[in-house]
Amino acid sequence: MTQRHGFVVWFTGLSGAGKSTLTGLLAPELRRRGLAVEVLDGDEVRAHLSKGLGFSREDRDTNILRIAYVARLLARNGVAVITAAISPYRETRNAARAMVESDGVPFLEIHLAASLEACEARDVKGLYAEARAGKRPGFTGIDDPYEPPLIPDLRLDTGSERPEVSLAALVRLLEERGLVPAGEGVAR
Ligand SMILES: Nc1ncnc2c1ncn2[C@@H]1O[C@H](COP(=O)(O)OP(=O)(O)O)[C@@H](O)[C@H]1O
Ligand SMILES: [Mg+2]
After folding, report:
1. 123 found inside a domain
2. Dist. CA 154 → ligand 2 center (Å)
3. How far apart are the first and last CA of the chain?
4. CATH number, residue 165
5. In sequence order, what are the beta bridge partners of 37?
6. How far away, in angstroms, is 158 Cα from ligand 1 center?
7. Neighbours of ion ligand 2 (CB under 5 A)
8. By three-state DSSP, how is residue 31 classified?
């Protein structure tokens, strides 16, 4: 049996930037190409692995490093791991990368660069309205920092391009890096 090498696709971006949406498109596309895939989505992780953690810098960092730890365990055993958490701090993302790469596992930082204005206009979950009303203190982008990556592996303009366009660019990168077998194009 041939076992493929695992890797970590690490999405970062504001709430509403498209992390969960692209995860939901990428995971089946990778499975279609024969890869074992696991997803660590911020919301779900906070309900289980990180239950009880809040949104202080310390708790956010703990959450991110837990995700990185599990991602590493999975990816070093051949799983394609997709993480979908805001991960607002540059230094903490770098620590996540270092943890994953310490096992020789490729780590791709993908910046979903939809602007605050775009995310707030969408307000998919109504969270920005709550944050503006003072009901969610410490909300990323409103009164808590988001530090965009300086040199991401890929930056996607999820504020203006369609999700399918973002997905295609991402799959192309994974193909170029030799991480996924070439497909007959992205399924639509
Ligand atoms: N290029 C794109 N990539 C991802 N999502 C997009 C894109 N363009 C528009 N959207 C929309 O933006 C919203 C993103 O929401 P979501 O995926 O829940 O964000 P997040 O998980 O980052 O908080 C969805 O309604 C999605 O349909
Ligand atoms: Mg999400």
Report:
1. yes
2. 19
3. 30
4. 3.40.50.300
5. 80
6. 7
7. 19-20
8. helix
How many structural domains comprise the chain?
1
Query: 86 in a domain, yes or no?
Result: yes
Looking at the domain assignment, is residue 122 inside a domain? yes
Residues of the domain holding 30: 7-176
Degrees (nearest 5) of the Cα angle 122, 157, 139?
45
For residue 118, give the ligand nearest its CA. 1
- CB contact set of 160 (below 8 Å; sequence gap of 6+): 118
Å from CA of 4 to ligand 1 middle? 29
Strand ranges for the chain from DSSP E: 7-12, 37-41, 80-84, 107-112, 154-156
Residue 22 inside a domain? The answer is yes
Per-position pLDDT tens, the chain of length 188: 455 789 999 999 999 999 999 999 999 999 999 999 999 999 999 999 999 999 999 999 999 999 999 999 999 999 999 999 999 999 999 999 999 999 999 999 999 999 999 999 999 999 999 999 999 999 999 999 999 999 999 999 999 999 999 999 999 999 999 999 887 655 55
Nearest CA to ligand 1 atom 11: 18
Q: What is the DSSP string of 56-80?
A: SHHHHHHHHHHHHHHHHHHHTTT-E
Confirm or reject: Cβ of 48 under 6 Å from ligand 1: no
